[in-house]
Structure formats: C-alpha cells, structure tokens
Design a protein that fits this description.
Length: 151
C-alpha cells in the first residue's frame, strides 16, 4: 500500500472526518480496517446519505486491488457468512451504513501488503445515477467482527 499513500495528507487521520457530496448523495468517511500482516483481504466502510428525491444504487467499487466486491454479512445460526451483493440501494431520504458485521467493501488480494493505520488509498464508488465518485479510504484501527478467513 505504500505507493498509494497520499503524501500531502500528513495530518493525524483520527481527527479528520472526510466526506464527499455529489448531487443528493453524501458519502461520509470512507475507512478501511487495519489488517494483520499476512491478511489477504481488507474491508472498507462508510455511510451514504441520500438527501435527494430519488433512490440511487451503489453498483460497484473500483480500486487498485486484484478484486473488489461489495459484501454483506448474514448470520447462519452462530456463524457469520459473507454474501456478495450486486448493488446496494440508497432510498431517497435514507442513510445506508457500511460497518463491521454488515455491509462492507471487500478489497481482495493484498498479497503481503497489509492495510496499516495511517495509510490512505484511492477508490471510486460507482452509482447507478450519480456515476463515478472518487473517494479516499483512510486506514484506521477498526475492529472487524466478521470472519474474512474464508474468502
Ligand atoms: Cu467480506
């Protein structure tokens, strides 16, 4: 990840909430959880507010990893399972939260380059109506309750 750090942003990340507004959508604080050194996957989170009059859908996330997917977490008895979702609707007037234990973006194929606190990386959130929204994920110390060992 080191080549993706944005050198200009050297301020303490914990103090900086960041957000992006496009049309009626507001994307709040994209953040990814720091991973173990050998992790193959990392997870990203944010909130999306839809202040507009029409629903929109997050249909894809693009970033510089071998594979990026939108997942949700479903409970199968006591076992949390990852389920791939094709799109996430953001209804008008509502907020959708990506958070540990629920919806998340899965960055796959870290291949020995783990997410470390303080790093940042670029991504593009692709919405059906709002189009491509470039964002920066901040890597933070986020407790991930879900088990990512099997994908
Ligand atoms: Cu996942």
């Amino acid at each position: 990840m080191k080549n993706l750090i944005i050198a200009a942003l050297l301020l303490p990340t914990m103090l900086l909430a960041h957000d992006y507004t496009v049309g009626g959508l507001q994307i709040i604080h994209p953040a990814a959880g720091a991973t173990a050194p050998t992790a193959q996957t990392g997870a990203g989170y944010f909130q999306i507010l839809n202040n507009g009059d029409a629903a929109d859908s997050l249909i894809e996330v693009i970033a510089d990893f071998p594979r990026v997917m939108i997942h949700t977490t479903e409970m199968d008895g006591d076992i949390a399972r990852m389920v791939h979702v094709d799109s996430v609707e953001i209804p008008a007037g509502e907020t959708v939260t990506f958070a540990p234990g629920g919806l998340h973006v899965m960055f796959m194929g870290l291949n020995g380059d783990p997410f470390e606190v303080g790093e940042k990386f670029d991504a593009v959130l692709v919405f059906e109506n709002a189009g491509n929204v470039p964002v920066v994920f901040y890597v933070e110390d986020i407790t991930d309750l879900s088990d990512h060992s099997n994908h």
